[in-house]
Amino acid sequence: MKYLIIYLLFLIFSNISFAQVLQEEVIQNKWYVNASLGLQMSGIKDEDFVSTNYTPLFNAAIGNHLSDIMALQIGYKGFFFNYIDDNYKHYYYYLYIETVFNPITAFISSGVNRDWNILPHIGIGIFNNNFLHKSQACLNLGIQCNYSISHNFDISLDVSSIVGWRIYQKDEDIIPGIIVGITYSFL
Hints:
The protein is mainly beta. About 10% of the residues lie in helices and about 55% in strands. The protein is built from one helix and eight strands.
């Protein structure tokens, strides 16, 4: 719980400093939703790269642009992953909160028409492994590339990982994934 409070305080103070340093106009109430589908794999070691270790990945998120440079979003990832030591589907859900950065706006005026955005994101969440009946805090980090297809819609490609300790092994675990999705921005 204390890490969540520290993270939220970091978000508040970093948003204030970004807005002051770059003197960007704060975007008011620009909400968005995203739904994405793709593939994930449990692990990144050489032995993890086998076809039975790939599973579908679903991600849904809702967010709000706090400024031109930063957004805050909450989301869900799931449904299951495979583990090479057994033949079971390890059902899980991962609920997260994360900060999404838009560094391009620091270099290009917000009035310029940009079709592409590169959005690094990092956050924390609760990973609940239903197979092991275990919940724990994990890190979510990645990078997303958005292409604007209209004023309200973007298509996205996101490469990210859930990083934790003892998610399914007895040491550090990583569940990387790649997803393609669509984002709708409310104006």
